Amino acid sequence: MTDAHCHPWDLLDYEKGVEEKRRETGTAAAASAWNREQFEYHENLAKKAREDAAPPLFRCFALHPQLSVEKSFPLPRGIELLYSLAVESRLDAVGETGFDLYDKKFKAAESIQDEMFISHLDVALHWDLPMILHLRRAMHKIFPSTRQLKKLPAVVFHSWPGTREDAEAMLKKGINAYFSFGTAVLKNHKEAIASAAVLPADNILLETDAPYQPLKGKEFSTWQDLRQICSCIADLRKKAGSPCASTEELEAQTTENFYRVFER
After folding, report:
1. Quick count: other Cβ atoms within 10 Å of Cβ 74?
2. Residue 11 vs residues 61, 117, 221, 231: alpha-carbon distances, Å
3. Inter-axis angle of helices 190-198 and 164-172, to 10 degrees?
4. Angle at 223 between CA 57 and CA 263, to 5 degrees
5. Virtual torsion, Cα 204, 205, 211, 217, nearest 10 deg
6. Are 124 and 131 within 8 A, CB to CB?
7. Comparing C-alpha atoms, which of 7, 97, 98 is closest to residue 57?
8. Average pLDDT of 77-96?
9. Interval 116-140: pLDDT, tens
10. Secondary structure (3-state) at 1
11. 173: left (phi over 0), alpha (psi -120 to 50) or beta
12. Distance between CA 184 and CA 68 in Å, rounded?
C-alpha cells in the first residue's frame, strides 16, 4: 500500500516500532515535517530504507498553516530552513502547506498564512517540486493560485476537503492534481465519499494522516488503516460504476499514482 500523507515522528507518541510496522505492512509513504528535528528523523528513515531496499519513505517539509497562530514560532527561520533543504536537494515535496481558517483564531492569522503560502509556492516552482496542500475551510484561497499551481509537477490535496465540482474544476484548469483520501470516507464524510466514488482513478491517492485521523473507537490512525480505506473507496466506485472498482485494482492504481508524484 501507499500513504500519501503521514507524520511518522508524531506517530511515535502513540505507538512503538513505527518504522518496523511500516515495513511490515509494505507501506511506501510520504512523511511530512515542520521543523528540523522531525525532518532529519524522517530523512534518516528514508536513507535506511534505501539501504535496506525497504518500501521507500519520501521527505516532505513545510510550515503547517496552523503555526501562523503560534507567537513564539520563528517564521523567518522556518522559511530559511525550507529554502536550505531545497537548495541541498533534500526535499521530495513541499508540504503540508496551505490555509487553515477553521475558527476565529486561525482567520485572524490569514495574512500570515498568505505570506507562508507564497514562500512555499515560490520554492516548489523554483525547484520543480510537488506540493501537498492543507485546506481547512479554505478552498476559496487556492483558486487564485491556479496559474502557478499548473506549473508544478503535481499538487496533492491532502484529505481532500472540497466537492466533486471543485476537484473537476482543478483538473479542467490544467493542474496536475491528486486528491488524497483517508479515514473520512469511513466516517461518513459526504463530500469525500461523493468525490472518491467518481473522480478519475489516475488522480486518487490514499493516506492515513497518521496519527491524526483515527477511526471511530481508535486513539490514532496508522498504516493498518490503508486496506480498509482502499476497500471502502473501491466499494463506492463499484456502486457508482467508476473504473478501479475492486480493492486490487484501486491499490494498483493508487500505487502507480503515488510513485508518479513522489519518485523523481
Report:
1. 11
2. 16, 26, 9, 24
3. 50
4. 25
5. 50
6. yes
7. 7
8. 97
9. 999 999 999 999 999 999 999 999 9
10. coil
11. alpha
12. 25
Confidence of residue 264 (pLDDT cuts 50, 70, 90): confident
pLDDT-derived band at 43, boundaries 50, 70, 90: very high
How far apart CA 172 and CA 243 sit, in angstroms, is 20
- Cell numbers 484548469 correspond to 173
b/e per residue 166-190 (b: at least 16 CB within 10 A): bbbbbeeeebbbbbbbbbbbbeebe
Grid-cell match 511490515, residue found? 24
- In tens, the pLDDT along 14-35 reads 999 999 999 999 999 999 999 9
Q: Is 25 within 8 Å of 224 (Cβ atoms)?
A: yes
Q: Which domains, from first to last, does the chain contain? A: 2-262 (3.20.20.140)
Burial 79-102 (b: 16+ CB within 10 A, else e): bebbeebbeeeebbbbbbbbbbbe
Please tell me the pTM assigned to this model: 0.97
The confidence score (pLDDT) of residue 143 equals 93
